Input
Amino acid sequence: MASLETLEAHYSAQINAASDEASLEAIRLASMGKKGEISLMMRELGKMSPDDRQVMGPALNGLKTRITDALAARKNLLEDEALNARLVSERVDVTLPVAREPQGSLHPVNQVMEELAVIFADMGFAVAEGPDVEDDFHNFTALNFPEGHPARDTHDTFFMEAKDGETPKVLRTHTSPVQIRTMMQGKAPIRIIAPGRVYRCDWDQTHTPMFHQVEGLVIDKETHMGHLKGCLIDFIAAFFETDEVEARFRPHHFPFTEPSAEMDVRYERVGDAVKVGSGDKWMEILGCGMVHPNVIRNCGFDPEVYQGFAFGMGVDRLAMLKYGMPDLRPFFEPDQRWLAHYGFSPLLQASLASGLS
Ligand code: DAH
Output
């Protein structure tokens, strides 16, 4: 039989070399399990002479206690080591800047609408809304489109199915009906912009059946073309982030304004984007005019007392020009790659102070 010292040295060495809980358990079984070496020796005690037993009994018990303690100590040590290794590998440096995983982006149309709201809010305009499904009265009649007038046809209108005996509703062909809805609330002065979706039956590189416009309306007691020009030139300067806007107002015709004009700005191309203020080309950017007296009257105001101006423009087109997008169609195809390229951070708010884009 191995001497107790040899046995203790043997197990101590094994315990110190054990690298996981399973090996520790194997050592425990081999030494103190039912058929373990020490357990078998304990069983021999009964056969010993009382003198031998008195020596061997406490010696074996002591050995058992020391091996039990050594196993427990080793187990604690292994657990501590495992925890430390995890703490090192999972350490977070809270002083590092947050790595923002871009999850989505603002569509250029939303971005431009926010920019428009910020610029016009600074000039005292509120944002107004109207329904996409409009009636003939708001979309045409109240805006001074005479019944059967060819101007109605130029809008390539989508008609809804008519209910019995009613004039069919339409998908609004422009945001101008919001002028009517706002004026008919009966309160003046008015300063609103109305951004939103509009619909026309058309489809090519620069036309889609749904697109976006923004309408502007000012109604007050002393409003004239000078106000209209100043307001729109300031808007173009803010939107294209330049001080050198050169504009010209070309006579035009819209049923709901008199006089009516189209506003052109001087520009040059820089890649797919435009630089406003320099170059030798002129680009039509919006339609505008003094609100027609008939429209003011249709909405319950006296045109002898109240005048105003209005303007309307394509939001998608503004986005294409400012951000250099050559084709309108991808605006309405949910293509992640296009959005990742042309989209805007939803965390950066457009503001006049910190920059629009
Ligand atoms: N509603 C016009 C269109 O869709 C745009 C427009 C032109 C709006 C002149 C206006 C305006 O308010 O004064 O073509």
Residues 174, 176, 215, 254, 257, 287-289, 310-312 surround 3,4-dihydroxyphenylalanine (CB under 6 Å). The beta strands are 126-127, 133-134, 170-171, 190-199, 210-220, 247-254, 257-270, 273-276, 281-291, 307-314. The mean pLDDT is 91. DSSP finds twelve helices and ten strands in the chain.
